[in-house]
Amino acid sequence: MIRRIDRLQTELPPPSDPDPDGAAAVQELMGGRFGEMSTLMNYTMQSFNFRGRQKARPFYDLVANIAAEEYGHIELVAATINTMLTGAGEGAAPDAALEGVKGVRNVQHFLAGGQGALLQDSMGRPWTGDYVFSSGDLVEDLTHNFFLETGARNNKLKVYEMCTHPAARALTGYLLVRGGVHQVAYARAIELLTGADLMKMFPSPRIPTELIPECRPHIDRGEHLRLYRFSPEDYLELTAVFRGPHPETGEDLVVVDDAPEGAPAHDLPPQTAVFAPDYAPEEIAEIAVRLRREAGLSDEPSGVVASTPGSRGARKATGGRPAAKKAAAAKPAAKTTAAKTTAAKKPAARKPAAKGAKRS
Question: Which of 240, 303, 321, 360 has its CA 20 to 30 A from that of 192?
Fold first, then answer.
């Protein structure tokens, strides 16, 4: 099961100048062969099909847990595309509100997508299940996953070079760091299973991640070393595989017993030219207020969003989590387990934390 938390895994900037052609390029990170839909569904299907998982529990936990993180990555890519498309069509019917976008690279963003992300690649081709590889052979699947993360890193670097929009740069900066963690995780799993040292191939492609300015804040926070555990009580054997030194820095790898703190999403304003969420969005807002009153709720929306200029009803968030969860996250010593290089030690069972603060 997936427990969903209404946060993005990292902060994205608010809408600025629209860039629909750049948004079309970012679609490669959604629906391309090496996009986030592919990483999500490869690892998800491998975890669904994993046989003998109890006796191979450390490897099952690794694949299943990374799959959960990838769910948040497709949300980040979608949020980036939506941010880049905001403001590209001005006005509403019966005016020719979309005339200015009829020549953009992917008009389906406007004709079929409500000025939002689609499950397509950068050329408008739909993502397909043919991109999923789940052979059942653990070594073969892990080797494929390492190759998949390497191809994904390659594409993120190219999208970074192609798009200067702030949202695209923030997205690729974060995903380059997190994808590097997954590369390390699969390489270490293959090494422990077979003795093959793929760690000598880092970084792959061979451009140091710290050269990317948008990567540095995440590296400074240690995101390049952390594998998050997306469950309050499960996937406890991650530390049996994700351990030892990072291949580039020599620092200890760490398993964090929590989801990332994350950040609230921006409340993107209505785009009336494409009827998102309606030709007259104020009518939907009025209906929502009436329904809240009938349910005994406040007139004000309960969700936490980042403040977005021009968005109706947006309120400034104080951070990624409510105060109680922030307090729990403020004790890293109790939340992290430094990876050890000795394989003989059995991972210690951890006391489950409060269920309300987790994603599974």
Answer: 360
